[in-house]
Amino acid sequence: MNPKASARAAAIAGHLSMRNASSEVKDTSILGLGNPMASMAVERSKASFPIRELTYFLDGGKEMTAVKERIMTELERDPVFQNVDFYDLTKEQLRERTMSKIARLIHYITSEREEISHLRLSLVGLIDMSLLTRTGVHYALFFGSLRGSASPKQFSYWISQGAAEMKGMVGCFCMTELGHGSNVAGLETTATFDERTDEFIIHTPHTAATKWWIGGAAHTATHTVCFARLIVKGKDYGVKSFVVPLRDPKTYDLKPGVSIGDIGKKMGRDGIDNGWVQFSYVRIPRQFMLMKHSKVDRHGNVTQPPLEQLAYGALVVGRVSMVADSAQMSKRFVTIALRYAAVRRQFTSKKGEVETKILDYALHQRRLLPLLAQTFAMQFSSDEMSAMHRALTRKIDSTDPGDRTAMAIVIEELKEVFTTSAGLKAFTTWACAQTIDQTRQACGGHGYSAYSGFGQAYNDWVVQCTWEGDNNILALSAGRGLVQRYLEVQRGTKAPPQTEYLNNLARLKSAQAGSRQIDSVAVLSEAWEAVAAAVVSKAGESFIALRKKGLTADEAFEETSQQRFLAARIHTQCFLVLKFFDRISSSGPQIQPVLTDLSYLYAIWSIENDAGLFLQAEFFTSKQIDEIRELCNLYCRKVREQAVPITDAFNLSDFFINSAIGRYDGNVYENYFTQVKRQNPSKPQAPYFENVIKPFVHRAAEVEVDGEELDEDEP
Predict the structure, then answer these.
(1) Which of 100, 218, 328, 530 could cross-link to 508 by cystine, CB 3.0-4.6 Å?
(2) Spatial separation of the C-alpha atoms in residues 407 and 212, rounded to whole Å
(3) C-alpha to C-alpha distance for 575 and 108, rounded to whole angstroms
(4) Where are the alpha helices (DSSP H) in 208-275?
C-alpha cells in the first residue's frame, strides 16, 4: 500500500477504534459498575412496607392474587406461549402463533367465569398484544355486539351456531371503512330491505365504503357484525348492525358477493390478520339484522327505540378495557426502566469509587417516578370506571324500556359514563404511549434494542390512540358533554358525581390555597376541582356567547373545540387525582404511607405541568408554584427509596416483563448478552457476503493521485 494511504487508513482506524472491555475485564466491579445483582438486593432491602400487602390491594384481595398467580403459572409453563424468540418473529410466524394461542385459550374462556377470563386476557395482553386483540375481536366486538344488540331469540340462535365457543364460527367486526372511521354515523355501506324476499341486501357502493382494518377478516373470520345504513322503502334510517356470513365454515370459500383481501404489514400487532371487505349485493335473511333496539318486520315496518342512545352503550366496553390496559402496560415498562436505573451506574465524583446509580440522579428521578405514580392513578381510575360501567349495565338490563321516566334516568347515567370513558380512554392511552417512549429513552442506548421490549411494545400500543375512537375526537366528544353539563347546571339541574364540582362554581371560583399546607388531600383535591370548574365554565360561557351571536349549536361547538379539548383533559386529570385519593382511604395502615407519597407526587407533578392554569384560576400564587416544584422534588426523593419494592408489588414475572434489561435479578449485562448470543448465533460469513460484501471489498482499486504532484512549485 502507498505509505500515504497507509497513514490515512491508520488515522481512520484510530478514530473508529473501540476497545472490547468485556474481553479485558471480567469483573464489572473493577470498571466502577459495582455488582448489579447486589445493587438490586440493596434496593429491595429498603422496603418500608409489606410488598405482598400492596400486591393484594392492587389485585383486589388475597384470593384474586392467588387466581392471578395460577393463571400466570399456566401461561408461563405452556410451550404454546413461550416468548423467548418473540422479538425476532416474522409477520407470518406471528399470525400462525397467534392462532395457535387462541386455540389454547378457548378452553379457558369457555370454562371460566367471565371475571376470570377478563383477568386471563389482561395478562395475555402483556405478553402478546396481537393475541389480546385477535381474541377481543371475536369476544368483545363480535360476540359483544350479539349480546348487546341482538334480541334474546337472536342471541340464543347465534349461541347455538357456536358463537360463544368459536366453534364453527369465527367472528370479526366490520365497522370502519376506508373513507370513514370516527364518524360512525357517516358510514356508507348499505343494507337495503327487499320486502319481496324478506332479505337485506348488503352492498359496498364505492371504494371508500370498503370495510378496512377489519381484524381477522384476511384469513380467519367466517362471520361479521357489519355496520350499514338501513334502507327501507327508500328511506335511510341510519347505521344499524347486521350479521353477515363471509366464508363457508367447512371449506373456507368466500360467500357469493363477498370480496376479501389482506391489508398487509402494519406498524405493529402483526399477529392480527387485518383485512378489507367489500360486499356486492350480498343477501342475508331479515332476521340477521340485530334487533334488540331497532326492528324491521316482514312488511318493512321499522320500529326505532325510544332512546336510541342505548344502541351505543356497547362502545363503552372497549373504552373501559383500554383504560385498564393502559395501567397494565405502564406497569411493565416503569418496572423495566426502574430496575435498570437501580443497577445501571454512570459517572462518579471521585476517582476510584463505584459509579453512581442513574436512579440517584435527580433528573432521572423526575423522568421516571411521576410515571410510576401515574400508573397507580390509571389503575384506580380504571377500577372506578369498571364499577360504574357494571352498575350501569345492570340498570339498563333491569329497566323496562316502556318506562320513559326510568329510561330517561338511565340515559343520563349513560351520558355520564360515555363522557368519562371517552376522556379516560383518550388521555390514558396517550399517557401509556408516552410512558413507553419515555422509559425507553431513560434506558439510554440499550433501550433501543428489540430485546429490551420497548420498540415492539410501542409499535403495538399506539394503535390504541386511534382505534375505537380517535383520541382527539373522543376528547372533543367528552368536552362537548362537559359543556352540555355546564349548561344544564346553569338551568338549575344538579350535576352528577363525576362533575360535582360544577355544583360549587361560586365557591370554587374564589377558592385559594392561602396559607394551608399544599401537600394535603384537601388542598390538592380542591385545587384540581377549582381548575376543572374554571376551564369547563370558560368553555361553556364561550359557547353561550357564540350562540348569542347567531351561530348554530354545531358551529358554536366547533368554534370552542380547543376549549372543549382542554376541558376534557383537565376534567380527566381531576378524575384521576380524586379517584387516587379516594382509593387510598380504603388501604391498610402498612401500605397507606407509600400510596400517599405516590398520590401526592402524581397530583403535584400534574399541577406543575399545568401551572399556568392554576395561576390563571388564582388558586396558587407564583411563589406557591415554586414551592410545588420543590415538593415535586421532595416526593420524587421519597418515592425513589421505595421504587423497586413498589414495582415488585406489581407481581409480574420475568416471563411477562420479557426484557433483557428488566429482569428481577438485576443481572442486566449477563442477561442481555446471553439473549443476544442465543438469538443471533455467530456465523463465519454474512448471508450476503458472496453477493455484496466480497465484490465490494475486492473491487478494482481506484487510481491514486499523489497530491505532491499537483502542488504548485514554490518560488
Answers:
(1) 530
(2) 35
(3) 35
(4) none
Mean pLDDT of 141-168: 93
- What integer is the mean pLDDT of 227-254? 96
Does residue 380 come out as left (phi exceeding 0), alpha (psi in the -120 to 50 range) or beta? alpha
AA letter at 611: A
Q: Is pTM, for the whole model, over 0.85?
A: yes
> Are the C-beta atoms of 310 and 396 separated by less than 8 Å?
yes
CB 432 within 8 A of CB 400: no
Comparing CA positions, the residue from 92, 175, 97, 174 lying closest to residue 129 is 97
pLDDT of residue 402: 73
pLDDT tens digits, 263-307: 999 999 999 999 999 999 999 999 999 998 899 999 999 998 765
Distance CA 26, CA 380 (A): 46
Catalytic residue among 43, 188, 416, 468: 468
Phi, psi of 190, rounded to the nearest 5 degrees: -110, 150
Contact 218, 92 (CB under 8 A): no
Overall average pLDDT of the 552-562 stretch: 96
Classify residue 707 by burial, with Cβ atoms within 10 Å: 0-12, 13-18, 19+: exposed
Measured CA angle at 387 (ends 383, 392), to 5 deg: 150
Question: 228-260: b or e for each residue (b if 16 or more CB lie within 10 Å)?
Answer: bbbbbeeeeeebbbbbbbbbeeeeeeebebbeb
Residues 418, 479: Cα–Cα separation, whole Å: 11
Q: Return d(Cα 414, Cα 11) in angstroms, integer.
A: 72
Helices H, strands E: what count in the chain? 27, 11
| Residue 148 scores a pLDDT above 50 | yes
**What's the Cα-to-Cα distance from 68 to each of 62, 73, 134, 277, rounded to whole Å?**
10, 9, 22, 38
pLDDT confidence of residue 309: 59
Determine how many CB atoms are found less than 10 A away from the CB of residue 711: 8
Instruction: Give the 3-state secondary structure of residue 511.
Output: coil
Give yes or no: 468 in active site: yes
Q: Are strands 190-194 and 223-232 parallel, antiparallel or unpaired?
A: parallel
Each residue's pLDDT tens digit, 680-691: 998 888 999 999
**Whole-angstrom distance, CA of residue 455 vs CA of residue 444:** 13
Measured CA to CA, the distance from residue 234 to residue 541 in angstroms comes to 42
Cα–Cα distance measured from residue 602 to residue 596, given in angstroms and rounded to the nearest whole number: 10
Query: Residue 704: CB partners within 8 Å, gap ≥ 6?
Result: 2, 5
Q: Which of 523, 601, 578, 604 is nearest to 380 (CA)?
A: 578
| Residue 310, C-alpha cell as written in the block | 342505548
DSSP structural state of residue 360? G
